[in-house]
């Protein structure tokens, strides 16, 4: 649905994007995770051509946006909604007036506009709030207005730039639940950027990790977790680095209730001490990471058995 190839963006001497390739499939929620200054917002603004990339191409829904003139681009952008960290609502307009704004720009007649606005406010859980001023709303409600406005033109793609970063944890969760529901009910493809790991854990099917204008790794969350040495794994399951000498770090995907550890102790007669670990319930399935020291018995055979069972094994020197 979204394909960016060889994207570069320079601001004078600053290289904000240093050759980015990004692929987001239709119907997916794809997260871009990275620290402040990594180039995430620049990437998002290049995806809808609010910024023209210095080099590279962006294709959305099969259309090469970088090849379009300003007029055609404005039309193509209707297929791409966007929401922002600070909501970007017009304070002089009511809630309904904010949601109606893009419809006015598109020239939608009044009666149809009003019908559509009511439908959108329903969709985001703001029925009956159309006449309110934005400053009467909580942060979460303001973001719901932002989402309704972004969906006014019935886009196939929603871009989200840190949409929950200004919200408290409970409100963040309710907005993420709304995005998940819109993804499922409307088949909306969502590209969201964030510096918060919990956003990635809660809603994303796939993720790209960005640093210094580059994507360091990208793919389905379960696939990245199953890749030895993945940075995503280290960030989701933080453990002290470097691992103590002689320890073994095990990463599990799939059913974390599988009694691998007790099987190991029974079958191979090993002593096992646990140094740390955690289990996470991710949008794409559960996964866990455990750091242990194995002693006695057939420790080598035990590791081979785990490897055979699909566990990722990192042995500290
Ligand atoms: P992020 O969203 O990951 O925090 P940004 O994409 O905002 O990162 O910024 C990436 C880099 O590009 C930063 O070094 C930033 O200072 C620079 N940058 C972003 N926008 C502009 C701009 N309009 N003019 C000059 N430099 C910019
Ligand atoms: Mg940013």
Description of the molecule:
With 317 residues, the chain is α/β, with parallel strands linked by helices. It has eleven helices and 14 strands. The strands form three sheets. It has a six-stranded mixed β-sheet with strand order 6-7-8-3-9-10, sandwiched between helices. Strands 2-1-4-5 form a four-stranded antiparallel β-sheet, with helices on one face. A hairpin with a 2-residue loop joins strand 4 and strand 5. The mean pLDDT is 94. Adenosine-5'-diphosphate binds next to strand 2 and helix 1.
Please describe the topology of this protein.
Elements: E1 2-11, E2 14-24, E3 29-33, H1 40-47, E4 55-60, E5 63-64, H2 70-76, E6 80-84, H3 95-105, H4 110-123, H5 139-150, E7 157-161, H6 169-186, E8 189-194, H7 197-203, E9 206-211, E10 214-220, H8 221-225, H9 231-236, E11 248-253, H10 260-268, E12 271-282, E13 285-295, H11 299-308, E14 312-315
The structure holds adenosine-5'-diphosphate and magnesium ion.
Throw out a few tags for this protein.
alpha/beta; single chain; six-stranded mixed β-sheet; 14 strands; binds adenosine-5'-diphosphate; four-stranded antiparallel β-sheet; binds magnesium ion; 317 residues; 30% strand; 11 helices
What's a concise summary of this model?
This protein is an alpha/beta fold and 317 residues long. Helices cover 34% and strands 30% of the residues.
- How would you sum up the major sheet? 6 strands, mixed
Shape: elongated
Percent of residues in beta strands?
Answer: 25-35%
Helix count, DSSP H or I runs of 4 or more residues: 11
Count every beta strand, where a strand is a DSSP E run of 2 or more residues.
14
SSE order: EEEHEEHEHHHEHEHEEHHEHEEHE
Helix proportion: 25-40%
Strand order of the largest sheet: 6-7-8-3-9-10
Identify the quaternary structure here: single chain
Poorly predicted spans: none
Mean pLDDT: 94
Question: Roughly how many Å is the radius of gyration?
Answer: 23 Å
Bound ligand species: adenosine-5'-diphosphate, magnesium ion
End-to-end gap: 44 Å
Class inferred from helices and paired strands = alpha/beta
